Amino acid sequence: MSTAQHTEPAVTTPPAPGPKHADGRMARRPLALRLLARPEVGVFLGAAAVYVFFLTAAPPVREGGAMATILYQSSTIGIMALPVALLMIGGEFDLSAGVAVITSALTASMLTYQLTLNVWVGVIVALLVSLGVGAFNGWMVVRTGLPSFLITLGTFLILQGVNLAVTKLVTGNVATDDISDMDGFDQARKVFASSFDVGGVQVKITVVWWLVFAAIATWVLLRTKYGNWVFAV
To answer: What whole-number distance in Å separates Cα of residue 21 and Cα of residue 122?
Structure first.
């Protein structure tokens, strides 16, 4: 009779884990480097450099009234630049934005004066017209597959002709009539074109609207699903 000998397999104990060596990818960077990595910081530093240059080279810029004027001019451009910037982040462009502003203003003015309506009615209709122009551009881009540059170039030319033709047809001139004495004009001016005092300097309310819209655009881009879609596109 023979007996089989069973041997237990040798068990090796793994070595004790040593200190972990980070490769640098997961290391937390200093606050200064994290701030410099943000795109908006570069823009801010560039704007600050331009501001310091003009403060040094052009002494009148140091006056409060001159700075208020610069802010006003910047706000009128900046309000329009915000939606165009959102389009550019998404890889699109809108050439018709400038002419659409004129279309909106003409709509509000002619509707108010010719139909003797409250100015706020003209403002609301002008907003709807502006939204309609933007929706039309977007629909055409999606349906045709053509670049937004070409679509909005066509809209630009169409609106330019419509502005002249309709204004001439309705008013008999290429300019609209004065609506400063119409109902609701004073209230609308307080909302869109008034001024407020800051240290003895009159600042236009459009600067506040500019900052508000910039804050909303930033929140949409960084904190909403829609903004994530814009970045993804």
So the answer is: 68
The pTM of the full predicted model, rounded to 2 decimals, is: 0.77
The Cα 219–Cα 186 span in angstroms is: 32
Name the CA radius of gyration of the chain, rounded.
30
Find where tokens 């090796």 sit. Answer: 12
Q: What tokens appear for 100 in the block?
A: 């659409």
Q: Decide if 127 contacts 104 (C-beta within 8 A).
A: yes
**pLDDT mean across residues, the chain:** 88
The pLDDT score that the predictor gives to residue 95 is 93
> Which tokens go with 169?
């047809």
Residue 23 has pLDDT above 60, yes or no: no
Supply angle C-alpha 78, 82, 83, rounded to 5: 135
Q: Spell out where the chain has E strands.
A: 195-198, 201-204
